[in-house]
Amino acid sequence: xxxxxxxxxxxxxxxxxxxxxxxxxxxxxxxxxxxxxxxxxxxxxxxxxxxxxxxxxxxxxxxxxxxxxxxxxxxxxxxxxxxxxxxxxxxxxxxxxxxxxxxxxxxxxxxxxxxxxxxxxxxxxxxxxxxxxxxxxxxxxxxxxxxxxxxxxxxxxxxxxxxxxxxxxxxxxxxxxxxxxxxx
Length: 184
Hints:
The protein has 184 residues and is α+β, with helices and mostly antiparallel strands.
């Protein structure tokens, strides 16, 4: 379980230099990027998915889409799906839904990071609320979290371009959303 104060304490214990960015309410990755003045390609969005019987945090650039095919390959999983809101509330109770930081180790979840995020020196992500974000060195994030790194995302979405429809297999009666966008 983590709240903003828990994230700050965790970063301080890890001797990490970081910046807290306060911003206007933003509920999508794109709007968070705008509010924090960070390009979509440099803002990391965190999704929670279930692969078989295991929940994972998947971390990818805000302007990318999660690739079901690639995630299955990296995790060697036959079935994957995004976590439902009720599951998120149980797994990550102290964070606002859709604002979880990519610190799976604070929640007992392994973390899967898209390889493209390793190309930047810094990582910026939500910090348990829709009004705060954290900026830190990617090397420090990797040292603390020890994520599995792989190619899990599709190419960036170009604004105005028709994005292809991707869907996970529906496993919940209300699960008819396009889960690849990760706009929670």
